[in-house]
Amino acid sequence: MKLQVAVDLLTTEDALELAGKVAEYVDIIELGTPLIKAAGLAVVTAVKEAHPDKIVFADMKTMDAGELEADIAFKAGADLVTVLGSADDSTIAGAVKAAKAHNKGIVVDLIGVADKVSRAKEVRALGAKFVEMHAGLDEQAQPGYDLNGLLSAGAEARVPFSVAGGVNLSTIAAVQQAGADVAVAGGAIYGAADPALAAKALRAAIV
Questions:
Q1: d(Cα 203, Cα 172) in Å, to the nearest integer?
Q2: How far apart are CA 28 and CA 55, in angstroms?
Q3: Where are the alpha helices (DSSP H) in the chain?
Q4: pLDDT tens digits, residue range 33-63?
Q5: I need a surface site. Which of 34, 79, 82, 185 has the fewest CB within 10 A?
Q6: Opening angle at CA 60, ends 142 and 160, nearest 5
Q7: pLDDT for 166
């Protein structure tokens, strides 16, 4: 199982600083949607140039103009780009077309999708490299939220998937047990007093 850090900061400088601390422990560096909106796609270029050996994930959350938006992100240096699972099939197919042209990948983010299992199978058939079983920060803040719904959906879908939404040292074993290909940790790393130590501990917990 790969470890992905979600960099939900707001400046290129902060993103580069965090990436520099944790890169040796992670496989994928994700540049979050707020970061891309605040700093522009130049942050993707900067992080890829600083860490050419890492998979750089641009969390675009594209909902329309799939081929165009994916092409822009790939040209900026992204290896993986997200499209929302609630987007039209043609949008996802367009993004996949751009990915093939660049020899890169599309990840379909199932945030807000009610039937994640069915949609996961559909978008995989459209050419998604993997799907992201994702609960956003707002959903995670609701009373009673837990990770189990995402894990069971991932296990049932039987397609390559990542899990994002409460992955930390106490849940990462369950994420791996559910069969996830990628565990996505955000606040558990960037919110830690020592992000490098937190990333190292998560890496060590993956067997």
A1: 10
A2: 5
A3: 12-22, 33-39, 42-50, 66-75, 89-102, 116-125, 137-140, 148-157, 172-177, 187-190, 195-205
A4: 999 999 999 999 999 999 999 999 999 999 9
A5: 34
A6: 75
A7: 95
